[in-house]
Amino acid sequence: SIGCIVADEPTTGLDVFQAGRVVSSLADLASERRTAVVCSLHAPRSSVFAMLDDVLLMSPGGRVVFLGPGEDIASYFANLNYACPSFHNPADFLVDLVSVDTSSKEDEAEDVARVKSLQRAWDDHEASTLAPAAGSKTSAGEA
């Protein structure tokens, strides 16, 4: 039994149809073998992005700005006032959201501020999600 499959950019160099087939095959394999599949994808088309169960989005420096179900990512960022425009590839939108344009000092400063705010928002989200419920008598060591 395979515990985990790790695929580093398995769709790189493929046309959109073959890329979709590869991701679909990996999803089928995960389901049939009940194993985790972890892949890094570079600019997946929206139909491929929609196949992903969970998404880890990292900012420069490797800081997490989202980790969770792919179906939740749009609403998470919309709640932070970063709504993906209609008819826009969500993967492209997300990459742009965490990218820093260094072509001018002004653009760089603006992008760095946005990325830092996304990092803080995720840290706050994690703290509130992982914090024990108010009044809970069970601590992590007692569970």
Gross morphology is globular
Q: Treating each run of at least 4 consecutive H or I residues as one helix, how many helices?
A: 5
Largest sheet geometry: 2 strands, parallel
Spans of 5+ residues with little confidence (pLDDT < 50)?
Answer: 138-143
Count of beta strands:
4
The separation of the N and C termini measures 30 Å
How much is the average pLDDT? 90
Radius of gyration: 18 Å
Topology as a string of helices (H) and strands (E) = EHEHEEHHH
Q: What number of structural domains do the residues give?
A: 1
Q: Order the strands across the largest sheet as they lie in space.
A: 1-2
Strand content: 5-15%
Helical percent range? 40-55%
| Secondary-structure content class | alpha+beta
GO cellular component, one term: membrane
Membrane topology: Multi-pass membrane protein
Region (Disordered): 120-143
Protein name: ABC transporter family G domain-containing protein
